[in-house]
Amino acid sequence: MSDTIWQFIGVGLLIWVVFDLFAGHTWLRRKYVRSKEPLGYWIILMMWLLFALWSLGVF
To answer: What keywords are annotated for this sequence in UniProt (predicted)?
Structure first.
C-alpha cells in the first residue's frame, strides 16, 4: 500500500512539473515566476522533479 501511495505522489508531482513548465510559474511558499526569478524558478522546478522521480523509484 505504501508503495502505491508514493507512486501516486510521484505521478502527481510530474503532472505539477509539466504544468509549471507551460504556465511559467511554480510554488514553494510563494509564487516564483520564470520571467522575474529564473534561478529560483528552475531550482524549485528541479527539486519537484527530483522528488517525483525519487518517489517513483527511479533513483
So the answer is: Membrane, Transmembrane, Transmembrane helix
